[in-house]
Write a structure and sequence with these properties.
With 67 residues, this protein is α+β, with helices and mostly antiparallel strands. 24% of the residues lie in helices and 30% in strands. The strands form 2 sheets. A 5-stranded mixed sheet has the order 1-7-6-3-4.
């Protein structure tokens, strides 16, 4: 799955929501802090992690690439 951004970056918490993988920002925050999200193959616990074009993240077996 890909999501396209028109800005320099998108924060991880926002990207999870934008991709439709969580319903609310508070859900995204909890999953990130519980080490359930990987960014570029590594567990990430930073909600505000800036994702840029070419980065990817994984959650519950789904991989999303920023384009």
């Amino acid at each position: 799955m890909n999501i396209t951004i028109t800005t320099e970056y998108i924060k991880l918490q926002q990207a999870l929501k934008f991709a439709g993988l969580v319903n609310m920002g508070s859900d995204a925050k909890a999953f990130i802090l519980d080490e359930k999200v990987k960014v570029n193959g590594e567990v990430c616990t930073m909600r505000g992690k800036k994702l840029r074009v070419g980065d990817s993240f994984e959650f519950e077996g789904k991989r999303v690439t920023i384009t």
